[in-house]
Amino acid sequence: MDKGQLLYEGKAKRLFETDQSDVLIVEYKNDLTAFNGEKKAQEQGKGALNNQISSILFERLNREGISNHWLEQLNQTEQLVQHNEIIPIEVVVRNIAAGSLAKRIGLKEGRELAFPIVEYYYKDDDLGDPLINEDHIKLLNLVNQSDLNQMKEMALKVNDALIELFEACEIKLVDFKLEFGYDRSGQIILSDEVSPDTCRLWDIHTNEKLDKDVFRQGLGSVEHAYKIILNRLKGALSHG
Ligand code: C5P
């Protein structure tokens, strides 16, 4: 598999063409950004950890019948994915109040929600990825209603699958962000990444934060936190 031209460079990943049509290489970077790029840093090993963690999670979601772009892990920092046209909506699912939800509607961080909350954000850096509702999505023509329904249904399935997997790792899945895209046949597939950069993950016993909030809030070593996630996932997988 030859690595071709750089197609796109984002905050945490680079996307390359390959010699196979519709197959791309994602390279996970060590860069960390928060607050819409205002806080920046690099942490050695972060890219490799997220590549391994997201490969484990995408593989599990595949087995659960949730179509996604991941094909295989290539090496420490790279994975092969299927080409897809990204839908410019970030879908956030929340099980426990934290982050912007806690702030926006005045819930105490850590409060368990009676049911999973699904939110949509418009993927637009200049606007700071604003929270949007179904009417905004319709007005902006970002995706049609039936595709939006499918994205929501898939996001809730991802939630069920990941809650179960992380519980086996003694980790609470607080919330996470997903992105979806259209494959060549027009099917909606899960895209981007699922990693501690895009999820909030707390230790079940101590509520220790083991995700990007470690960086956002200056709580210590991201590498240390993400290593705990990877090791527990590997442990859970080896026990069934
Ligand atoms: O900041 P907020 O509470 O809205 O984030 C909800 C979830 O979505 C968190 O897990 C966060 O890491 C993730 N997120 C993300 N990328 C963004 C915004 C939020 O991965 N641009």
UniProtKB/TrEMBL annotation:
<dbReference type="GO" id="GO:0006189">
    <property type="term" value="P:'de novo' IMP biosynthetic process"/>
</dbReference>
<dbReference type="Pfam" id="PF01259">
    <property type="entry name" value="SAICAR_synt"/>
</dbReference>
<dbReference type="InterPro" id="IPR033934">
    <property type="entry name" value="SAICAR_synt_PurC"/>
</dbReference>
<keyword id="KW-0436">Ligase</keyword>
<dbReference type="GO" id="GO:0009236">
    <property type="term" value="P:cobalamin biosynthetic process"/>
</dbReference>
<comment type="pathway">
    <text>Purine metabolism; IMP biosynthesis via de novo pathway; 5-amino-1-(5-phospho-D-ribosyl)imidazole-4-carboxamide from 5-amino-1-(5-phospho-D-ribosyl)imidazole-4-carboxylate: step 1/2.</text>
</comment>
<dbReference type="GO" id="GO:0005524">
    <property type="term" value="F:ATP binding"/>
</dbReference>
<dbReference type="InterPro" id="IPR018236">
    <property type="entry name" value="SAICAR_synthetase_CS"/>
</dbReference>
<keyword id="KW-0547">Nucleotide-binding</keyword>
<comment type="similarity">
    <text>Belongs to the SAICAR synthetase family.</text>
</comment>
<dbReference type="GO" id="GO:0004639">
    <property type="term" value="F:phosphoribosylaminoimidazolesuccinocarboxamide synthase activity"/>
</dbReference>
<feature type="domain" description="SAICAR synthetase/ADE2 N-terminal">
    <location>
        <begin position="6"/>
        <end position="232"/>
    </location>
</feature>
<protein>
    <recommendedName>
        <fullName>Phosphoribosylaminoimidazole-succinocarboxamide synthase</fullName>
        <ecNumber>6.3.2.6</ecNumber>
    </recommendedName>
</protein>
<keyword id="KW-0658">Purine biosynthesis</keyword>
<dbReference type="InterPro" id="IPR028923">
    <property type="entry name" value="SAICAR_synt/ADE2_N"/>
</dbReference>
<dbReference type="InterPro" id="IPR001636">
    <property type="entry name" value="SAICAR_synth"/>
</dbReference>
<dbReference type="InterPro" id="IPR050089">
    <property type="entry name" value="SAICAR_synthetase"/>
</dbReference>
<keyword id="KW-0067">ATP-binding</keyword>
